[in-house]
Amino acid sequence: MPVKKEARPAVGSKRATDQQVVNSITRAVKYDMVRQRRDEWERGMRLLPVPFAAMLAAYAVMLACGVGA
C-alpha cells in the first residue's frame, strides 16, 4: 500500500488558511455594507429637497387660492 504524504503546512506553502479566508471575506462584507450605507445616505441627501419643494408648491397654490391666508 502506498504511503500517504502529509500536506504541506499552509503557512510554509504561502497558501491562505481557512481563518485568513474567513477574515478576508468578513472584511469585504463589512466594507461593502459601509459603502452601501454611504450610497443610501448620499442618495437620500440628494432627494431631501424634493418633499420641501412639493410642500412649498402646495402652500403657494393654497395662498393663490386664498385658503391659507
Global Rg: 30 Å
Biggest beta-sheet profile: none
Q: How many H/I helical runs?
A: 2
Mean pLDDT: 81
- SSE sequence, one letter per element: HH
Q: What's the number of extended β-strand segments?
A: 0
Description:
The protein has a domain at 18-65. The mean pLDDT is 81. By secondary structure, the chain is mostly helical. It contains two helices and no strands. Helix content is 68%, strand content 0%. The radius of gyration is 30 Å and the shape is rod-shaped. The chain crosses the membrane at residues 45-64. Keywords: Membrane, Transmembrane, Transmembrane helix.
Descriptors:
about 70 residues; single chain; membrane; transmembrane; 2 helices; mainly alpha; transmembrane helix
Task: Give the arrangement of secondary structure elements.
Blueprint: H1 18-47, H2 49-65
Give a brief outline of the structure.
The chain is built from 2 helices and no strands. It is mostly helical.
